[in-house]
Structures are given as structure tokens and as C-alpha cells.
Amino acid sequence: METTKKTLKISFSTQKGGVGKSTMTTLLASVLHYRLGFNVLVMDCDFPQHSLTNMRERDKRTIMQNDYHKKAAMKQFQAINKKAYPIIKCKAETALEKASEYRSQSAVVPDVIFFDLPGTANTKGVLTTLKKMDFIFSPITADRLVVESTLGFTKAFLGLPQTEEGNPEQEMWLFWNQVDGREKTGLYDAYQNVIKELNLPIMETRIMDSKRFRKETDDTGSYVFRSSLLPAEPQLMKATKMDLFVEEFLKITHL
Fold first, then answer.
1. Domain count for the chain
2. Which residue from 65, 87, 135, 225 puts its CA 20 to 30 A from 7's CA?
3. What is the domain range of residue 170?
């Protein structure tokens, strides 16, 4: 008997801008799709800026204009002979429907669908879409406002009444992003304790800050980091601890 494959719905979600949601979505999607053999679909619901759709356009231009990226793309295509993962532009309230439509019509069933949602919970459709996710990963940085707003939102979100449409098996994980190696660990320990007291799960891997997170591919002439057409290079993954993050992510999601 053939069982239908379960497609995981995952969102990097937080109420604060600038903590790396779209960057994390791209890095993870590209590593899973191009390097680890999974099939990925990305729903770009971040209306009106649609930063991932715009990023894909910039990535295409970079590959055409930059020799280093062009060679990397040709080498990748020869090795895996696989198309780029689709990025579908939508609004939060239609994201689930559009993803389901794509899944039913596509010859390749995605293993993972990433939903890149707007940063404000009061945007129409954000909460109902989040309630349907299998996993939500929330990046936090060692900044009091970021921590307070994320913890406040997480507690409120987890306290919302279960509805018919919700996903009772949903898991929500916090993780430290943009960690500055020079920062005092005491600060992290204090926050860790608060998170523990609130009984919220937090990932062990802390992602190190790197200027590369803020660079678009067209500024990165001789290396690849954040790109929707190529996976980040292994040595850069290692330097930022993204490699360990991916391992832990795979364990949590059982992919």
C-alpha cells in the first residue's frame, strides 16, 4: 500500500523585524533542496515587500553576471540536475490554500514547505496560518526588546485556544541568532533562565553573527552564502554554526 508522503509546514516566525526570518528561510531552503536532497517549496507571504521573490530575481541576475556564481550554478546543475525550488508569492490569508493547490498539481511532492510570513500578528491571516504549521522556529537576539516581545508573543500564541483548524501536534522552538562572540555569556545565561522558567523549548545551537547574513549575493563576488539558487558554502556554514543548526533542525523535524 502506498502511503501519501507528509509534507511538513514550517515557518521562521517572530514579531520583530531584522532578526533574520527571511535569511534563515533562504539558507535552510537552499541547503535542504540543493545539498541534502529534499524537495522544497517556499511561500513568500510577506506582503507587500515580498523580499524572497525579489531576492530570487537578484540571484538570477547575479548568476548571469558573476563568473564565480555562474560556475557554481553550472557545477551544481551537473551534480544534482534539479530545478530551483519554487517561490510562490501570496498573502498570508491565502498561503495555505495556494500551497495545497501547488502540492496537488506538482509532479514532485515537496518534503517541506516554508512559509515566510509578515512580522505582525495582526496582519490578516498570519495567526490562522501559523496555527497550521507543524513547526515554528523563532529567532531571538540578545536584545531586551527582542527577547521580551518574542517571549510575550510566544506565550500568548501557545495560550490561544485550540481550534478545529489548528495543529495539536505543533512544536515551537526558539533559537539564538546573530550571536556576537564578544558578548558576555552572562547575558545569555540570564535570558536562558527566563526561557526555562517559562517552559519554552530552545535549540542548543546558537548562530554566530556574520556580516554575510546582511549581504545580498550581488555583493559576494567570490563566495556564496545567502542565495535562493545555491546553497551556502560549507566553510561559511561552519563559521556561523549554521551546519550544527541544520543538524539539530533535522533531528527536531525528523526529516
1. 1
2. 225
3. 8-253
Tens of pLDDT, residues 70-118 = 999 999 999 999 999 999 999 999 999 999 999 999 999 999 999 999 9
User: How far apart (Å, rounded) are the C-alpha atoms in residues 114 and 101?
Assistant: 15
**Rounded distance, CA 59 to CA 77, Å?**
15
Dihedral of the alpha carbons of 109, 56, 30, 24, in degrees to the nearest 10:
-110
Q: Find, among 1, 12, 35, 6, the residue nearest to 249 by Cα.
A: 12
Query: Measured in whole angstroms, how far is the alpha carbon of residue 200 from the centre of its chain?
Result: 19
User: Taken in order 128, 129, 135, 141, is the CA torsion positive or negative?
Assistant: negative
| 124 DSSP 8-state letter | T
Classify residue 1: in a domain, yes or no.
Answer: no
Residue 98, pLDDT score: 98
In a domain, 3, yes or no: no
